Amino acid sequence: MKVTEKDVTYVADLANLELSAAERAGMVRDLNSILGYIDRLNELDTSNVEPMAQVSDRYGVDDSKQGSERFAYTYREDVPEGLRKSLPQELALENAPDADGTFFRVPKVIER
Amino acid sequence: MQLAPLTIDAVRSAVQERRTTAFALAEAHYARIEKEDGQIGAFLTLCKERALEQADRIDRMAAEGKPLPPLGGVPVGIKDVMSTRGVRTTAGSKILGSYIPPYDCTAVVRLEGAGAVVLGKTNCDEFAMGSSNENSAFRPVRNPRDLTRVPGGSSGGSAAAVAADMVVVALGSDTGGSIRQPASFCGVVGLMPTYGRVSRYGLIAFASSLDHIGPLTRTVKDAAIVLRTIAGRDPMDSTSADVPVPDYVAELEKPARGLRLGVAEEYFGDGLDDEVRHAVESAIDKLKNLGCEIVPVSLPHTPYAIPAYYLIATAEASSNLARYDGVRYGHRAAGAKSLSEMYRRSRDEGFGAEVKRRIMLGTYALSAGYYDAYYLKAQKVRTLLTRDFEEAFSKVDAIVTPTSPTAAFRLGEKSNDPLAMYLADIYTVTADLAGIPGISIPCGQTREKLPIGLQILGKHFDESTILRVAHAYEEAA
Predict the structure, then answer these.
(1) CATH code where residue A26 lies
(2) What is the Rg, in whole angstroms, of the alpha carbon atoms belonging to chain B?
């Protein structure tokens, strides 16, 4: 599976990254090198192996419980500010590059 | 009083008994930072006001004869991937160059709750992506033991700060080895707890199923004290485990005699530097002389760990870093005419080369047509790697390995070859993938006086055993 410049442009679009021509060329080279190395995973027969997305559902939990019962300890009462107070609006806006005191201001969303 | 080498207990008792004050200690450490950090680069931000206020609080307690909390007066550094309210937090990136979090990371809250004095935020590879701390958007960190060499990464600043006596304790994060490897390069102790042992709330996410917070310290006992303080269920992190926290410090004194230690041939093959091999083998001999039984084990899927890791970690990162879009916080590109242009240019201007590379790799691995071949495949290999450990741990209590195939390399030596850099993690990524705990402790040095690290891996939630083995070795060495 060789990565082309077209692939890089497509993936950069998906990732919302504006790459320069030089960066694109470098990316073609780097991705091919890394994916070439990663290819060795195909030496393994994983046809009967379950995927493991995360550790938490197998370790540190009560195995005798099934499904969502296993994670009952992570639930809380569905009440407002049940865990802690919400972030006040001024604080939430403090790091904003552009805000009007109520909203975050951004360039126009719909392009026509 | 003498500034170094200090441990948590030494500081706490000195402040409690009024032989010194937390304030004086904080000032002395800041003086050292001012003198040395120009050369080393361990710190990105200092928070003197916060530190001295905390120090005053501790000193008042001591003056009133009240018993100090376990880390009373202890100067600590926090890796800049952990949010500290009101104190700039950058994740080592220009995209967060002016970001001031409105909240504190749980691990920081618990440390300060135990009396720790946070001196500042330590330098790191951008978004914790790197093995040398050369990817910091601000400046690289240099190894205090040899300023021409890297301290390791991504918690290079934390490791260097402890090694250079700028702090007594530092917090780091580990996703592929980023606590243990810099600990081994700098000659300090680095502990990565079991996944879920310590809350990730407030840790700027890199790879959510692989990220861990853990301590870097001068001694094993200090690592145990910090772990006891920061571990435990946190309702703010649903992946934090509901497992009781043992008294890790009390467990330390149990002898290592009788423990079965596994040695896996896959960790001693080609690519392992001779001096590192020799030091680690000597360390294993020492453990044998302490009464440990050495058992050969096999972890056959080890060669597939790096490729699996670089698919899973980058895929998760591509998702976690999607939030940096210039809307609510962080860098926003000037003069963008559309939302899309704002996203693309903000991210292009704000992210460094390695971060972009990993986002690209991760996005590619998750994209339509490639998801099964890459991401799903990697997850299945993750299962196989974890099964290797389960199998081995049915025969042994812990596994001993080198932490890294080499000692600290020179700045610039690997920065042109991303793949060569990735291979530095070869002995550490396996633990992150399986979610098991691991500790790196110093076990000697090379002819050029560079530190070498011994790694001890343990069963899930069995930090007590690896701390015990590490402590026994440390006492005997």
Answers:
(1) 1.10.20
(2) 21
